[in-house]
Structure formats: structure tokens, C-alpha cells
Write a structure and sequence with these properties.
mainly beta, SH3 type barrels, 16 strands, OB fold (Dihydrolipoamide Acetyltransferase, E2P), about 55% strand, five-stranded antiparallel beta sheet
């Protein structure tokens, strides 16, 4: 049994007969009353995001999770095909189970979280950043560099990203997978 003091990002807990993953949390105290812990939780079964507030010191049921490394193979209808790096077993994962899966490139590795006791897939985590090549973007207008203007660009996975005007077709860019935002240009 854990308490609200143990809450951290990525923690999986059981609440209302569902397994939820902590996305964000904040601890605060109001006046003389007891403190509270505000959490943003994502259901591992439905993908729904909810907000829940706990009283400080409240007992929570922590779910033991195991991390397994998988390699992304290819998309298939409304799913992604992944292969276990150790056993070479292939699994099909629904597209809504992976946040920003549009940035997955063939051969990329992802972490799958499994319920430690039931051996059930809970969620799949993307790497924090990916490096992708720009396949299409409009040329930047010369002299329009005084502001931080962004333009749309399509990357090799088919996803669209907003990039600075100096980015061109063939450039490699680093993308934050949590937000889908451009981070920097990468040298080849």
C-alpha cells in the first residue's frame, strides 16, 4: 500500500476498478486544512484522461508494472505491430494506446508497460524524442526571419510538424514526442 506522498509521473495506480497512469500531479495546501494532491490520470483500458484530487496521506493501491522493450515493425489497419526484442514475439497494439504514434518510424524501439501480476499490456511509451527527415515543406520567404514564424512540414512518417522557416526538404529534425513540437535541426 502506498500513500499520496509516493505519487509521481508514470506511476500506475488502481482506482474505481480501473488501472490509471499518473500523467501530471500537483501538491498544495489550503489555509489551515490538510493538504491535497491534484492528479491527472489516464486510463490504461479506455485511454480516457480524468482529474482526481486526493487528501494528503490517503492510501492508494500501486500497481506493479514491468517494462519490456519492443521494436516497431509496421502499421496495420487501426493498430501498430510490435516485436519483443528478447522473445521475437509479435503483438498488435491499438493506435489509441500509443500517444503520438504518428511519429513512430520503422525499427524504432518503444517501452511497453505490463501489469506485473496479470501479464496484461497497460500502455506503450514512445521515446522522449525522435529524429525524422522532412519530406515536404514550402520554401521559406527570404527576409521573413525577424519573427519566430513557423511553417508546416511533413516528415517521413506522414505526420505534420510546425518548423522554423529555415528548415528545408531533406533536413533531419528532432521532435518532442510528448507535445509533437519541433526541438532542433540535427546534423546528418
Amino acid at each position: 500500500m502506498a500513500t499520496t506522498a509516493d505519487i509521481r509521473n508514470g506511476l500506475c495506480i488502481e482506482l474505481n476498478n480501473d488501472i490509471l497512469k499518473v500523467i501530471d500531479f500537483s501538491k498544495f495546501q489550503v489555509g489551515r486544512g490538510s493538504g491535497k494532491v491534484w492528479t491527472k490520470l489516464k486510463s490504461t483500458t479506455t485511454g480516457k484522461v480524468i482529474e482526481h484530487t486526493f487528501q494528503s496521506g490517503h492510501n492508494i493501491t500501486e500497481v506493479r508494472v514491468e517494462r519490456r522493450t519492443f521494436q516497431y515493425l509496421y502499421p496495420e489497419d487501426d493498430a501498430y505491430m510490435l516485436m519483443n526484442q528478447e522473445s521475437f514475439e509479435q503483438i498488435s497494439v491499438p493506435t489509441d494506446m500509443i500517444d503520438n504514434g504518428k511519429f513512430l518510424k520503422e525499427g524504432e524501439t518503444v517501452d511497453a508497460l505490463y501489469h506485473g501480476q496479470k501479464d496484461v499490456l497497460l500502455s506503450v511509451e514512445m521515446p522522449p524524442t525522435v529524429v525524422l527527415e522532412i519530406t515536404y515543406t514550402e520554401p521559406g520567404v527570404r527576409g521573413d526571419t525577424a519573427t519566430n514564424t513557423l511553417k508546416p512540414a511533413t516528415v517521413e512518417t506522414g505526420a505534420e510538424v510546425r518548423v522554423p522557416l529555415f528548415c528545408e526538404i531533406g533536413d533531419l529534425i528532432k521532435i518532442d514526442t510528448a507535445t509533437g513540437a519541433y526541438m532542433e535541426r540535427v546534423k546528418k
